[in-house]
Design a protein that fits this description.
By secondary structure, this protein is of the alpha+beta class. It has three domains: 4-86, Orthogonal Bundle (Arc Repressor Mutant, subunit A); 95-137 and 240-353, Beta-Lactamase (2-Layer Sandwich), CATH 3.30.450.40; 142-237, Enolase-like, domain 1 (2-Layer Sandwich). The chain contains 13 helices and ten strands. It has helices at residues 4-10, 13-29, 35-40, 48-60, 77-86, 95-103, 112-127, 179-193, 198-212, 218-237, 246-252, 256-271, 332-353, and strands spanning 64-65, 74-75, 130-134, 142-151, 154-161, 166-171, 241-244, 289-291, 305-312, 318-326. It has a five-stranded antiparallel sheet with strand order 7-3-10-9-8. It has a three-stranded antiparallel sheet with strand order 4-5-6. A two-stranded antiparallel ribbon has the order 1-2. A hairpin with a 4-residue loop joins strand 5 and strand 6. The longest helix has 22 residues, at 332-353. The protein is elongated, with a radius of gyration of 26 Å. The two termini are 38 Å apart. The model is unreliable at 234-238 (pLDDT under 50).
């Protein structure tokens, strides 16, 4: 990635202009760009043959590709990366886009999930892509934990937080549980976790249980272990990723191959696969990151691009992320500042609330 500016510097003016115009033309309409199209409004008077020669050189460098259906060229993934890192002009969000994002923050409600859902809808609306919003974990102190039996093979872990928020998580309890073992397991945990946040207890609770497990009988001990496992795993994976605007991806599909890739992406999003890794994409702190095609480890099978930015709380700690996902021919120069603006607005809103 860091070699892009150097490679662009080493190009002559003509090669650089041909490369830029091919990429911009492709990003605008998704079609291959031909030499005749470029000669019409090129900055200097050159023949189509000269432009074709330049395109061949750029293809040899791995920056352009020629689909068999056309004499025109499209950028490769490497070409898109070089354009994004070295040539892309980033605009500022226009007033209309900013107003639509701002409007989601207008209501003074306690439901952060509902607010972030509206943010996701607005973000997909202004970018014409699918939006992803990773919501923050609930960080209020825990007031109470309870196990509720639903059937022989189904139970709930119920978490009640000091601010009134309640979370329920379904799991399969170990066989043979009784009402008294469930009560004993809950009493044991409540003595350990009351007044602590999920983050506080995650590392400490397992070692504490190991030290004190002889205090409870075998049935209750098994329930504590399995209940905690589903509580901790689900904390990273379930119901934290809000996806809006999937229909925009279908509208952008041109070829049958595009549709296949989008179906693969939908499958990934349905499974919410590797959501615990979503925040890892934002490592390196504040700012927008762009993942093109196979660089995007979460959705690489679909060959999609992801523009993502973390948002932070008042302590400058990353607590979530917002992003836009779509085909590799996203209008990166427009979408990057919109994602950046949205992330900063969400961070400020959550910081003000806390």
């Amino acid at each position: 990635m860091s070699d892009a500016p150097k490679m662009i510097e080493e190009m002559n003016d003509r090669s650089r202009e041909v490369f830029r115009r091919v990429v911009e033309g492709y990003l605008e309409n998704g079609d291959p760009v031909g030499s005749r199209t470029l000669t019409r409004d090129f900055s200097e008077k050159v023949s189509a043959a000269t432009i074709r020669n330049v395109m061949q050189d750029l293809e040899y460098m791995g920056l352009l590709d020629s689909p068999h259906i056309s004499a025109g060229r499209i950028p490769t993934q490497m070409g898109l990366r070089m354009f994004v890192d070295g040539l892309m002009e980033v605009s500022v969000p226009d007033d209309g886009d900013r107003e639509k994002i701002d409007a989601t923050m207008g209501r003074n409600e306690s439901d952060v999930g509902g607010l972030l859902d509206r943010v996701g809808s607005a973000l997909s609306g202004v970018t014409h892509g699918a939006s992803l919003v990773l919501t923050p974990k609930h960080e209020a102190p825990i007031k109470h934990i309870e196990f509720v039996s639903l059937a022989a093979d189904r139970a709930l872990v119920v978490l009640v937080f000091a601010d009134g928020h309640v979370e329920n998580r379904l799991f399969t309890p170990p066989p043979g549980q009784t009402p008294s073992s469930m009560r004993e397991a809950a009493n044991f945990l409540n003595a350990l976790i009351e007044g602590k946040t999920l983050t506080d207890v995650r590392g400490a609770i397992q070692s504490e249980i190991s030290l004190r497990r002889q205090e409870i009988d075998v049935l209750a001990r098994d329930l504590v272990d399995s209940g905690l496992a589903v509580w901790q795993d689900a904390g990273d994976r379930n119901e934290r990723l809000i996806v809006r605007g999937r229909s925009n991806l279908l509208e952008s599909a041109g070829q049958p191959d595009d549709l296949d890739r989008i179906r693969t992406l939908f499958d990934d999003l349905e499974r919410k696969r590797d959501i615990s890794e979503f925040l890892e994409l934002t490592e390196g702190g504040d700012g927008v990151r762009i993942f093109i095609g196979s660089e995007n480890k979460l959705f690489s099978l679909s060959g999609s691009s992801l523009v993502v930015s973390p948002y932070m709380n008042a302590d400058r700690k990353i607590i979530g992320a917002v992003g836009v996902i779509g085909p590799t021919r996203l209008n990166y120069g427009r979408i990057v500042p919109i994602v950046d603006y949205t992330a900063q607005l969400v961070g400020k809103m959550l910081s003000d609330r806390s």
